[in-house]
Known about the structure:
mainly alpha
Amino acid sequence: MSLDRLYFRFICFLWSFSRGLFYRDLADALQRKVGIRDHLERATSNARMLNDSTGQRVLRAMSFRLSSGEGTTLSEMVAGISPTSDQLLLRAVDSTSDKVAALEMTASAVEFQQRTLKTMARELAIPAVAVPIVGAICVVTSAIIKGIAQDSPPGIWEGYNGLVRTLAEFINDYALGIMAVTIAAISALIYMLPRWTGPTRLKVESWPVMSLYRDYNAAVVLSALAMMIRSGKTLRESLESLRVTAQPWLRWHISRIITSLEDNPNDYLAAFSRGLMPPSVRARLASLLDSAKSFGDALVELGAKEIHTLEARVKLSASAVNWSLTGFFTAIAVVLSIGQMTIASALSHEAEPSRIMQRAQQR
Length: 363
């Protein structure tokens, strides 16, 4: 890959953070009966005026595709520029007659994904920083306790102090192994999250890290379904479109929903209760279904107007992961720190003249 191509990809990555605004501006232009070509020319001129070199480069690339005939549709025009996840939404925009409303929903779906990713990054940044620091404190404290144990009387290592000594010696002897196993486990988990399927996966979907991945994907699926159904697609067509581009785990869940609908065409709640949707979302969907004209309308209501509920669910799951990881290592550090204080107190007691004389008599 050439350096110029690599640099263009980096430019597209930077631009992707503001692509929701681009979709909204394009919807506004179409509503005002301004053509896409004219809008791109005006947007490029505005980017030049604002010294937005990133926007200029991206908009020029889109204009070139449009003028050369390579980008006859919106999805083709931004292919390789916007993230791949946008293609499914943009193809729905291409196929609908109300492109203004579809683009607005696309912008909302993109902005929702960005907000949830920011929420997860913010929550997971805490354990990413805290765990190594707390781990280093545990290693240092363990080394100190092990050093004390070598030249101290055996009488102080009873009860809680004995537990602390055992924990400290384990950490001190196997610190590198623990670190290697932790890194390997995290790497394996990241690799398995989008790929692991089957009955066992269903049993652990409610666990902290698993539930975070499930809740995020459930929210993305609901927003995408709402957008595609609003654009005129049927529920089955929307699910099939999602399944084509989904990763193995999500494809497996969508296939389970489709299979359930094939077996029981009218039991929509049962189909959407097979593992992908968290209980709180299923409960809200059931409530909306009581007043909606159809299940598709209930999905649109949930995916388009109940975004804050989905975001709150993702934030809750991210917080659970944060507290689980940080809390586990912090608990070990607290046990060692308290142990260090109780050991110091025991050593002070053993250094008293009465204790020294007592030990001398016992000899």
